[in-house]
Amino acid sequence: MWLHDDCSDAWWQDFGVSMEQSALMALSRMPKLRSEVLAVSPLSLACPFCKVGPRLDCANTAGGFAVVHVARIKKAATLDSLNASRAARKRDR
Ligand SMILES: [Zn+2]
Questions:
Q1: Per-residue pLDDT tens for 5-55?
Q2: 90 CA → ligand 1 middle, Å
Q3: Cys-Cys with 59: which of 42, 48, 49, 67 at CB 3.0–4.6 Å?
Q4: DSSP string computed for the chain
Q5: Other C-beta atoms within 10 Å of 64: how many?
């Protein structure tokens, strides 16, 4: 059976978004982020959404791009801001 071309791109858009897209989306919803970089890589964490382990991609698109769930990036961004606020508290002392 042939899959229609239009379908092959659509399946993963519901499932996840590309690393760049999801990073931008997660960061744009986090006005309190203190730096332009994430000190915690999403890929160093297990994905809370699909439970894939560290250093593994959540999925790959038909085009071979790695897909990472937004939940995973948010987790990394949360850890990153926790680290940043801990570091700030240390500096204040
Ligand atoms: Zn995932």
A1: 444 444 444 455 566 666 666 666 655 555 667 778 899 999 999 999 999
A2: 33
A3: 67
A4: -PPPHHHHHHHHHHH-EEHHHHHHHHHHT-TT--SSS-SS-GGGS--TTT-PPTTS-SEE-TTS-EEE-HHHHHHHHHHHHHHHHHHHHHHH-
A5: 6
Tell the burial category of 26 from Cβ atoms under 10 Å away from its Cβ (0-12, 13-18, 19+).
buried
Tell me how far the alpha carbon of residue 47 lies from the centroid of ligand 1, in angstroms.
5
Q: Which residues contact 53 (CB under 8 A, 6 or more apart)?
A: 46
| Measured distance CA(81)–CA(87) in Å, rounded | 10
Ligand 1 centroid–CA 61 distance in Å is: 13
